[in-house]
Amino acid sequence: MANNITISLDGLTKRFDSFTAVNNISFSLGKGEVLGFLGPNGAGKSTTMKMLTGYLPITQGRASICGYDVVSSPLSAQERIGYLPEGAPLYGDMSSIEFLRFVAEVRGFRGAERNQKVENAVSKLELGSVINKPIETLSKGFKRRVGFAQAILHDPDVLILDEPTDGLDPNQKHQVRSLIMEMAPDKAIVISTHLLEEVSAVCSRAIIISNGNLVFDGTPKDFAKLGPLDEAFRELTSEKSIKKRSNKKRSIKTRPKKENR
Amino acid sequence: MSGIGVISKRELLAYFSTPLAYVFIVIFLALSGSLTFFMGSFFDRGQADLNSFFSFHPWLYLFLIPAVAMRLWAEERKTGTIELLLTLPIADWQVVVGKFLAAWLFIAISLVLTFPLWITVNWLGQPDNGVILASYIGSFIMAGGYLAIGSCLSALTKNQVIAFILSAVVCFLFLMSGVEIVQAFFQPWAPNYILDAVNSLSFLTHFNGIIRGVIDFRDVVYFASIIGVFLYVNAIIINLKKGS
């Protein structure tokens, strides 16, 4: 994985006034990897993603996408990212096709190329039946798929999905997951979630953060070795465990594969 | 440049996708028309000009333009689409300018639709069409000033009603600083340069110059700087408010 690093975070930190939302997080991700970004609510998952996508300013540290620093060359980084924000916000007054065309145009596609990109995304997500309906009238599952279509429209190298399956029914969850797996081989994908089974279902790597600190970095298998998922998760993210570990220097940070703590 | 165009197009279509646009245009036309004829005594003046039409514009804009501007950013922040928009590969300032231009174009459409008044006055007499054209341009530029204020303040809140009230209040201050009552308040004690400063800050002072038929370079610079300053602050506010 080391030869084709597409996402790299180095000491990424975000402070809101005195509150530290994300504390010194470093990892890198290569093509073909699907990273499950785990943590309790409020752990700093979304904040990290917002910094990666250039939405929130970074307090300290660096982040780069395909070699482009998200602070010094944000537009080049953003061109290579497909981003699904939490809750998949969309322009409710537009129809799906209008919306996707708009996003394609902002991304610089015009005319036939634009239509081609939109068409691809529409067929991939099976949006054909609702394409002319105003987005606000669509069901939650369809809305999420429109948000998804928007993110993959330009075939980005990096996909950042903030809770893509949150609030979907089991069928829709399955659909989203198979879509992610389908796209995985030639992209670097980051999925945030608080569903543990999702990690074992789609991810090749898991990172757990708690109170802004990275507490686990390894494969889902490594994670499973720690015991039953729920218990391991609770153990890693409990206050006590974080304190203990910050004294011992973050020791549980295993490199994926190889080292088996 | 093309990025601005894409944003403007979406924004303008968004106006017409809700009844707001049509309601606005109807109210604008009805009010500007009736003010001209009843309050402005268009007929009694017996003059072939549109002075009684244009002199009400600063007051009409005072509450109509905040209504146009209020949704520009407040809605975006409320629905969370701002995150989507600002993580697309387009610079923040391009989004600010694109949105502003869309709203400005919308005002231009409303202004153009007042053409029956122009036809009426030309049918009744021989007005100086140069003055009328200058007044239309002046009114349009002034609308830009109101709009920049409205857009800027709309970025402060998720609530469109608050955005409306805030911008109406600030526009009111910019308007009133040229009114005689306010001037009289400063006159007894303030030195002349303060008096001049307050007076020259007013939309009214600069607009009244234009509807006399003279597009003074200084008036244009004034409105252009209002637009520039408020859009600049607009971009800053958006950056500061991203976290919240």
Question: Helix count of chain B, per DSSP?
Answer: 15
The CA-CA distance between the termini of chain A, in Å, is 19 Å
Number of domains of chain B: 1
Mean pLDDT of chain A: 85
Query: How far do the termini of chain B sit from each other?
Result: 30 Å
Order of helices and strands of chain B: HHHHHHHHHHHHHHH
**What is the spatial order of strands in the main beta sheet of chain A?**
6-7-8-3-9-10
Structural class determined from secondary elements of chain A: alpha/beta
Strand percentage of chain A lies at: 15-25%
Strand content of chain B: under 5%
Number of strands of chain A: 10
Radius of gyration of chain A: 18 Å
What's the overall geometry of chain B? globular
Structural class of chain B: mainly alpha
- Give the helix level of chain A as a range of percent: 25-40%
List the total number of helices of chain A: 10
> What kind of sheet is the major sheet of chain B?
none
General description of the model:
- The complex is a heterodimer of chains A (261) and B (244).
- Chain A is an alpha/beta fold and 261 residues long.
- Chain A has ten helices and ten strands.
- Chain A starts with a strand and ends in a 14-residue tail after the last helix.
- In chain A, 46% of the residues are buried.
- The longest helix of chain B has 26 residues, at 129-154.
- In chain B, helix 14 packs antiparallel against helix 15.
- Chain B starts with a helix and ends with a helix.
- Chain B is built from 15 helices and no strands.
- By secondary structure, chain B is an all-alpha fold.
- Chain B has one domain (2-243).
- The interface between A and B is medium-sized, with 30 and 23 residues.
